[in-house]
Design a protein that fits this description.
- The protein has 9 helices and 4 strands; from the N terminus they run ααβββαααααααβ.
- The chain has a 4-stranded antiparallel beta sheet.
- A hairpin with a 2-residue loop joins strand 2 and strand 3.
- 20% of the residues are buried.
- By secondary structure, the chain is mainly alpha-helical.
Length: 255
Amino acid sequence: MKKKIITVLLIMGMGLLVLTACGNGDTDNNDNAEENGEATGQVPEATEEIDPDDYEDDDVLVRINDEEVLFSEFEEEFERNKLAASQQYGIDLDSEEGAVMIPQIQQQAIESLISQNVMLQEAENQGIDVSDGDVEDNIDDLTEQFGGEEGLEEAMEVEGLDDESLRAFIRENLMIENLFSQNLNMESIEITEDEKEAYYAQLEESWEEQGQEHVPFEEVEEQIAQQLQQQKQQEMQMEYLEELMEDSEIERLYL
């Protein structure tokens, strides 16, 4: 199976754009917003399928703090989400069975674009920039991951990326990484022995259910600590993103 560029970027710690804001359940503050398509971090329920025949490429689907998300941008993001979902669930989304998932995948694409825009706007507001050298260093890392320039070019062709779009994607991810690192104290995260033992207990239950041999705690303790560290980092990032969403003016014009 060919490696996907997005997957490799996730492994490299750069796949932050996949974060999407979660609703905080505060419906009282969002009643009026739901009526006029505005929100402050509240994610709406999946709507009916967005019909491409109803839109032109330059139609505005979402306005975020006076910046616009066009239908053409949504289509690109939707196709990426659609491909990922198809590979994850092994379902042909163009079939009758898979069609029921389309509204949800479309909503995920919308929320991903909103999250990206909110975070990139905040990064720009804070004067966060990424040098060309940083982008090139990450291109070199990707080239190595794919076994050389030819392997990377083949992967880019599969995903419909050219040099310009790949560099733009990497630059945006690095900007968001820098936004998190400058505003979140990741070093303050601590993993306790109780947390590791509780996680190990869950693993034991899973091994028991699947009839697998149990692995001694000492052999997986480091991996458990890494997993818990990653989970707490993601929770911290998510909380920060939700704060940014709540402070943003978001108009969902497709509703």
